[in-house]
Amino acid sequence: MEKLIAKDLLSIKAVFFSPDKPFTWASGIKSPVYCDNRLILTAPTVRNDVEGGLAKMVKELYPECEVLMGTSTAGIAHAAIVGHMLNMPMGYVRSGAKDHGRQNQIEGRLEPGQKVVVIEDLISTAGSAIEVVNVLREAGAEVLGIISIFTYGMKKGLDRLAAANVENHSLTNFDVIAEVAAEEGYIKPEDIERLIAFRNNPSDESWIGGNK
After folding, report:
1. Bridge partners for 31 per DSSP
2. Residue 169: its pLDDT value, please?
3. DSSP readout, 13-57?
4. C-alpha dihedral over 134, 135, 140, 141, to 10 degrees?
5. Rg of the chain's alpha carbons, rounded to an integer?
6. What letter would DSSP give residue 145?
7. Alpha-carbon span 109 to 168, nearest angstrom
8. Burial (Cβ within 10 Å: 0-12, 13-18, ≥19) of residue 210
9. CA distance linking residue 123 with residue 132, whole number of Å
10. Residue 90 DSSP SS3
11. What is this structure's pTM?
C-alpha cells in the first residue's frame, strides 16, 4: 500500500521532489519537496486508490468508529468520499468558528461520546490536525485517531502527536516516497540522503547543493 500510494502521488505530482531547485515555504524554509494532495481529487484512478486505502484503514484500525471528521479544507472531500464508501456519518471542523448563523466550528451532527476518526491529507508539524482533535474533544467526542494520506515523519510532528496523546496512521510517508522517487527516476539515488537530512531538520539548509 505504501509504495502504491507513493507511485500514485508521484505520477500526478501531488508530491514533487526538486532537491536541486528547492521550493520556499511560507515560513521561509527551503524545501526539496512540494506537496499538493488536492490534485488527487482530479485524478480518478489515484483517487480510487487513496480513498480505498483510507477506507481500509478506518475499517481495520478503528472498527468501532462512528463518525468521520475531515480537517478544513483539504480533508473534507476525502472524509466525505470515505464516509460514503463506508456508509458512515461525516462532518468537518472549521479552522475557526463562524461569525454568523449558529457560529459552528464543527459542521455536521456530533453527539457527546461518539467515537471519531479524523481524516487529514497531510501531516507535517501536525499543528492543524491536533487543533481539530482538541476541538472535537472539547465537544465531548472520543477521538480514536487520525488517518492521513501522507506524513513527513518530522520530529516536531511526532512529538506534538505524542504530547496530544493521539496516533496518526498514513497511507504513505516521506521515506517511502523518496525511495520510490529514486527507483522511478524522479530523483537520483544519492539525493535520498539529502531529502532525509531535510526531513530530520528542516531549518538546516546544509543539504542544499548536495555533492556538487
Report:
1. 23
2. 98
3. TSEEE-TTS-EE-TTS-EESEEE-GGGGGG-HHHHHHHHHHHHHH
4. -80
5. 18
6. E
7. 23
8. middle
9. 13
10. strand
11. 0.92
Q: Among residues 121, 117, 136, 130, which one has the least CA distance to residue 62?
A: 117
Nearest to residue 180, comparing CAs of 192, 168, 169? 192
Q: Which residues pair with 34 in a beta bridge?
A: 16
Helix residue spans in 89-212 (DSSP H): 127-138, 155-163, 174-183, 191-200
Mean residue pLDDT across the chain: 92
To the nearest 10 degrees (0 to 180), the angle between helices 2-11 and 44-61 is 150
Q: Which residues pair with 15 in a beta bridge?
A: 35
pLDDT tens, position by position, for the chain (212 residues)?
Answer: 999 999 999 999 999 999 999 999 877 889 999 999 999 999 999 999 999 999 999 999 999 999 999 999 899 999 999 999 999 999 999 986 544 445 579 999 999 999 999 999 999 989 999 999 999 999 999 999 999 999 999 999 999 999 999 999 999 999 999 999 999 999 999 999 999 999 999 888 899 876 54
Nearest to 71 by CA among 162, 149, 155, 167: 149
What is the distance between the alpha carbons of residues 183 and 44, in angstroms, rounded to a whole number?
24
Q: Please, which residues have CB within 8 angstroms of residue 137's CB and are 6 or more apart in sequence?
A: 143
- Angle (CA) 93-25-130 rounded to 5° is 30
Q: Which three cell numbers stand for residue 192?
A: 535520498
Q: How far apart are the first and last CA of the chain?
A: 35
